[in-house]
Amino acid sequence: MAYDKFEVLTSTAYPLPIENVDTDQIIPARFLKATERVDFDINFFRDWRFNADGTPKADFPLNQEKYAGSKILVGGRNFGSGSSREHAAWSVYDFGLRCVISSEFADIFKNNCLNVGVLPVQVSAEFADKLFAAIEADPKTEIKVDLPNQTVTLLATGESESFDINLYKKDNMLNGFDDIDYLKNIEGEITEFASKRPF
Amino acid sequence: MATTLFDKVWDSHVVRHVQDGPDVFFIDRHFIHEVTSPVAFLGLESRGNSVLYPERTFATADHNTPTINQHLPVEDALSANQLDALERNAKKHGISHWGLGDVNNGIVHVVGPENGITLPGATIVCGDSHTSTHGAFGAIAFGIGTSEVEMVLSTQCIMQSKPKKMRINVNGKLGLGVTPKDVALYIISKQTTSGATGYFVEYAGDVFEDMTMEGRMTVCNLSIEMGARGGMIAPDEKTFEYIKGRSQTPKGADWDKAMEYWKTLKTDEGATFDAEFNYDAADIEPMITYGTNPGMGMGVTKDIPTAESLKGGVETYRKSLGYMNFHEGDTMIGKKIDFVFLGSCTNGRIEDFRAFCSVVKGRKKADHVTAWLVPGSHKVVDQIKEEGLDKIITEAGFVLREPGCSACLAMNDDKIPAGKLSVSTSNRNFEGRQGPGSRTLLASPLVAAASAVEGVVTDPRTILTANANA
Ligand code: SF4
């Protein structure tokens, strides 16, 4: 699935300072019944965003006008744990977010994000705390995520931290490529390898 | 050079190493189910690709299936649509498909080993995080996302960075009423829900050597719940005995050749790990969880810890207890429960039903408890009947349902209602996992059985001891 290239993103951010946010919260299982990838934004954080009767919960950050339109979400430690459902990463993307920042990501969620065009940015716990504090002090505070230079900057103060991403994945994100393009190109090598497998 | 089991299997599956990038990693066996595969097939077709090795992919319907009246058409239109899509896609691309009612049908991580698809030294993936189950056979097995499902379909490879290595040793003898589920919940409570993030775990020590294959599957299954990519156990005679003669295992000369390879699959003396932990079997009690992630577990006789006594966010902890409607310092024993769920890829195998029956035999289900007993596959159902466990179950006032994931993730009608408290043998106690607003206590089949007959959270050792003295 093609996605838009990612270079430099400057945006306000939704804060979600809760630890161990699992993918069952990001998109509950009962909304996984589709056979196409459409409208996953609607049920993004369904049970935290809406009451049982469908009315929005006013105090949940994703519903608050002051953060509306942000393209970044800053989450608590161990973000995206649990189920491997890629629907969670789709719902992040479909909701209009291109970047999730956390001090720690669960592995499968992180991979899924990279595969669908959402940049997972892992920062130190101290820097994550600074981001939360800055957003709390000013919901309109902007964060700049610079993929070519691998830095994330709090524009108001100029405080910055670098983040890791392997060069291959970085290249994919910068160009909007995905792994299948790469793998299809080396199919001959793969079939040669497969012919030698014992089972 | 001394190498680990994990290195041996991983390195032999690397087609190519991308500079400053991941490995092109070859996949021997691929399982698909109705929920995470439809979009992968759409992607495959929209790019004009075909399935490169259809004989390496196996489809089963499980996540979304009803657990009663499976002979009737599936009522929920969306579920039926997903099941149809799976069948259509499998047929079209020449993939073997075990749909609803098929003798081989069941939960993907139960039917894989049953049919000998799971082999030592293999690489196995599925769009489901509990694929880690298959590590019990000395395979590298882990969950992937839908984009990766498409990669495997079209190229039999995924792009993966090699995880770090962790070894967890548990030595000693397990006490009365302490099952593989308890060993896993104990380890996760020590590691926390993210302690093994970035690692692949090898389990070693007498406790795992003494364990049955089914027990090992339960342990490896839960590896993901401490953040690990997967977990594995070196294959031994028990492993070979288990897989021998199953429908898809190598036969004759192929078997002999495979055995030569399989016998090399162990961690060499002196091989090193990035992290290593040692636990003592004597410290492990029957376990229960009290919060909203599987790391929030403790011995069933203990009291819920105070926020201050734990490292980690106090606010997140209090939010979790708030959801459960529990308080710091609460005793779990004696808490009134509403539901019991026996099943899932964690505890839906024959040994789990035997364990459950060892407690409920000659007793009665508490009147106010609703119990769902859901075998992991049709083969498990057959075995239950062959051993006469179905009679014990019925006489104790329980009903046996048909196989599927059921209340483990509550995609079908098996949903625990809001506010209700369930003792479940499944693997996740996340908010709403078993239905919006549901509250889950993860535990072993023994704890589930004891709680089902008493109607409150119960230490199974009281019943097991009474049985022994009777
Ligand atoms: S039983 Fe639960 S954890 Fe296992 S495959 Fe089904 S939904 Fe996933």
Automatic annotation (TrEMBL), chain A:
Pfam families per UniProt: Aconitase_C (PF00694)
Annotated Aconitase A/isopropylmalate dehydratase small subunit swivel domain residues: 5-125
Keywords: Amino-acid biosynthesis, Branched-chain amino acid biosynthesis, Leucine biosynthesis, Lyase
Pathway: Amino-acid biosynthesis; L-leucine biosynthesis; L-leucine from 3-methyl-2-oxobutanoate: step 2/4
GO MF annotation terms: 3-isopropylmalate dehydratase activity
UniProt cross-references to InterPro entries, sorted A to Z: 3-IsopropMal_deHydase_ssu (IPR004431), Aconitase/3IPM_dehydase_swvl (IPR015928), AconitaseA/IPMdHydase_ssu_swvl (IPR000573), IPMI_Swivel (IPR033940), LeuD (IPR050075)
EC number: 4.2.1.33
Catalysis performed (reactions): (2R,3S)-3-isopropylmalate = (2S)-2-isopropylmalate
Domain of life: Bacteria
Oligomer and partners: Heterodimer of LeuC and LeuD.
Family that this chain belongs to: Belongs to the LeuD family. LeuD type 1 subfamily.
Function summary: Catalyzes the isomerization between 2-isopropylmalate and 3-isopropylmalate, via the formation of 2-isopropylmaleate.
Protein name as annotated: 3-isopropylmalate dehydratase
Lineage: Bacteria, Pseudomonadati, Bacteroidota, Flavobacteriia, Flavobacteriales
UniProtKB/TrEMBL annotation, chain B:
Pathway field: Amino-acid biosynthesis; L-leucine biosynthesis; L-leucine from 3-methyl-2-oxobutanoate: step 2/4
GO molecular function: 3-isopropylmalate dehydratase activity
Keyword ATP-binding: no
Reactions the enzyme catalyzes: (2R,3S)-3-isopropylmalate = (2S)-2-isopropylmalate
Cofactor(s) of this protein: [4Fe-4S] cluster
Domain of life: Bacteria
Keywords: 4Fe-4S, Amino-acid biosynthesis, Branched-chain amino acid biosynthesis, Iron, Iron-sulfur, Leucine biosynthesis, Lyase, Metal-binding
Domain Aconitase/3-isopropylmalate dehydratase large subunit alpha/beta/alpha: from-to ranges: 7-455
Class of enzymatic activity (EC top level): lyase
This enzyme's EC code(s): 4.2.1.33
Keyword Iron-sulfur: yes
PROSITE patterns recorded: ACONITASE_2
Function recorded in the entry: Catalyzes the isomerization between 2-isopropylmalate and 3-isopropylmalate, via the formation of 2-isopropylmaleate.
PANTHER family, A to Z: 3-ISOPROPYLMALATE DEHYDRATASE, HOMOACONITASE, MITOCHONDRIAL-RELATED
NCBIfam families (alphabetical): leuC, PRK05478.1, PRK12466.1
Name of protein: 3-isopropylmalate dehydratase
Organism: Wenyingzhuangia gilva
